[in-house]
TrEMBL record:
It holds the Pfam family Exo_endo_phos. It comes from Saccharopolyspora thermophila. One of its GO terms (biological process) is DNA repair. This is Exodeoxyribonuclease. The active site is at 109, 153 (proton donor/acceptor), 255 (proton acceptor). Transmembrane segments: none annotated. The lineage of its organism: Bacteria, Bacillati, Actinomycetota, Actinomycetes, Pseudonocardiales.
Length: 264
């Protein structure tokens, strides 16, 4: 069995002080994808930068204190790639991938966007480039006899069952019709939303809750953290769960780990 977790840590240094280190020590995952690490490697404690029993790949952003992704794996990768061949985005700390036996794993932090601002334009440019890359990646991996799994914070809720207050968010970044249509195109192109395959009905399971108000206590969340896999790998998924904290005060991020177990 292969178990993979993904989580937006909302600042790895802060998360390490609030419970991430303990979660990492206890997890049964074989691979972990992190997003929004917001730290240079030398800013992290050794036990977070290079935890015992793990091989770590850290991809910080050139913009200090922003974005950043990482991949931890118990097996040493045979290859590591930072970015996806984009002149604009490869140093932005938004994508890293590793080659593991029979599998390519990517950690993605897609821009969040903001309607009517340059941030939304940036998000749309990223989406266009990354969609083309995903098609190429699937073909290259298949030629090498590998499956593909891209985990991370995709910053888009795909369907109405993927967020609690969908009616109020139809004109907001993260639930725009064009963003949702883009995800549909991804899922129609040979990739599968693994968690939704295992939990077809909804609502949720949500993976992000705002720190504002009573969003967490009321389970007023969004499902924006995905395992996106090639079809053959998705068929091998046997369990998916969101590791939601038992209470607000025990959270170490505004996201929760999304963990999936796959048959070998």
């Amino acid at each position: 069995m292969l178990t993979v977790s993904t989580v937006n840590v909302n600042g790895l240094r802060a998360a390490a002080k609030k419970g991430f280190v303990e979660w990492l020590a206890a997890t049964g995952a074989d691979v972990i994808c992190l997003q929004e690490t917001r730290a240079e490697p030398d800013q992290l404690p050794p036990g977070v930068r290079e935890p015992d029993g793990w091989h770590s790949v850290l991809a910080p952003s050139s913009a200090k204190g922003r974005a950043g992704v990482a991949v931890y794996s118990r097996v040493e990768p045979s290859a590591v790639r930072i970015g996806f061949g984009s002149a604009e985005f490869d140093d932005s700390g938004r994508y890293a991938e590793v080659d593991l036996p029979g599998l390519v794993v990517g950690s993605l932090y897609l821009p969040s966007g903001d309607v009517g601002t340059p941030r939304q334009d940036e998000k749309e440019r990223f989406m266009k480039e990354f969609q083309a890359y995903l098609g190429d990646l699937r073909e290259r991996a298949a030629a090498d006899g590998r499956e593909v799994l891209v985990c991370g914070d995709w910053n888009i809720a795909h369907r109405e069952i993927d967020l609690k207050n969908w009616k109020a968010n139809q004109k907001e970044a993260g639930f725009l019709p064009e963003e949702r249509a883009w995800l549909t195109e991804i899922f129609d192109s040979g990739y599968v939303d693994v968690v939704r395959r295992l939990h077809p009905e909804g609502p949720g399971p949500y993976s992000w809750w705002s720190y504002r108000g009573k969003a967490f206590d009321n389970d007023s969340g969004w499902r924006i953290d995905y395992h996106v896999a090639t079809a053959s790998l998705a068929e091998r998924a046997v369990e998916a769960r969101v590791e939601r904290a038992p209470s607000y005060d025990l959270r170490w991020s505004d996201h929760a780990p999304v963990t999936v177990t796959y048959r070998d």
